[in-house]
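Posting this for the archive.
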Amino acid sequence: MSPSILNHDRAPSALEIPQDFLAQIKQDIADRRIEAGLRCLTAHQQILESIPVRQHNSVIVLGYLAQWVDVGFPGRALLKKLLSHFASASPESLTLLEYAHLRMADGLVAMSEEEFAKAIKSFNTVLTLENEISDKQMISIANFWMGRCLRRQGRYEDALGYVAKARDLAMQLKLPKMAAVMQVLEGWVAFQEGHPEQAAKILSEAEEVLADTDDYVTLGNISSAYGRIARRQGNSEHALSKFEKAIELYNKRDPYNRNLARSFVNIAFVKRLLALQLGNKIDSEAARLRKKASKKGKANSKSSPAHKLPSREQRTQLRKEAFEHLTKAQEIYQRYDDHRGNGNVHITLGYLNLDDGELDRAAAQAAAAFRLGAEKKDSVLKARARMLQSAVQGAMFEGQIEEGGSRVPSSQLACEFAREALESAKHTQNRRLIAKAHITLGLALCLDFPDDLEAAQLCVDAASALLKPAHQDYVWRELQDLKRKIRGAGNVNSTLREWSQGIIGDKSFQQVSEEFASIVIPKVWRRENRKVARVARRLSISPKKVRRILRDQGLLKSSRDD
């Protein structure tokens, strides 16, 4: 490519793009003077909307416009329109610098439309020209945008190298505020890699540098990251306060910012976890009161509901608020046709429905999320959707729900979905996502009490190697649940082996018979399509005994379940 063979038959000087305009929007973005830069762009809107293809600095302003669209200038449609005008320009008609700016604008549009492979290709082209281009600020941003694309693909280790280079270059250029913006992504990657304390330190340093700016989106990102760290550490109340602060900051810039929608999803997810915890406390308290009443030989029917009512109301309110937050998030994401965002809304809605036993709705939400992930070849979203689908099938199996016209048992479908989730997760470098996929597969393998527990134990080992036990959040608790299920099934196998050798300890024959019945009857019940009458005929025992044993194990809760 020649240094410059741009047509020099320029338009009259009155139509030239002012140099001071270019200098201001370049410096404003470096110093994070967001409001000043947005006012400047608005004041020059007429120039932006009628940039002649062959005008001096026309391609340069296109590259700067892309940077401002990224930080909040409402000009994505304009940028796409201008790019279509420049599509006919051959690389030979541009300087290297102009060509790099054109590729930056192309990449930003692709990145905003979740076409990350296309965006990476554009940014990589710019970076190959690094030694030939004088504008090192643009090279810094190209590295930063490359890191963001890789992060969205779940390629955290790859992303970190580009982000660190972007930050170092910004510091060499004496642009500390721009470097701080890049530090925020560096902190986020550290968090995703399982280093929350290091992430918090990096975020704090960036926050201090940006505190006197009006870069509300980046400041909101910092607060949102603090919220995720708090959630990972099991501090839900602190997480909520940080997400609420992020929403307040995003709203200062744009009430329809995509990051605002992300915070609504985060808050909804935390409130879902809080509602689950409350539900568990309510159930535990109810069981305690029933046990206490049975010991006294009478139930206190008046005091128990009054005692539990406030917690139930609070749980209902948390779930209601979670649905409301997701509605707001979906409204924003649909404005941008954001597949990942809309997919995360579907998944969180799916888990809320799953918690409430609305399995058909949960399955529909999971399927919608998977379709969105498949459209964009989004391995992260596909893995999350398949994990939800596996959980739904597991709930169908445990809840004795018929598979309808499907000949594939729910337990088998749960395993198939979990294996697909693991396959998708392994296309990323997201250790936590891979660990959760292993846990999901392990839980699916434990359905119907498998005879061979080695595969489930391998899932435990793989997840344990990926998760850090320091912070015991919901994923860690799922791992503990899987371990308990494996121990329980293993104990059954061990007991049967001991009995086969005549080892019964100090148990009577009646006790051994009862314990054996508690092992065999649930298995036969599942094989007989969960029909009590069939089990009674098959084993030549009374239906009453079948029901009693199933109820003792929580498999049959009422006569309606029979």
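The mean pLDDT is 86. The two ends are 78 Å apart (CA to CA).
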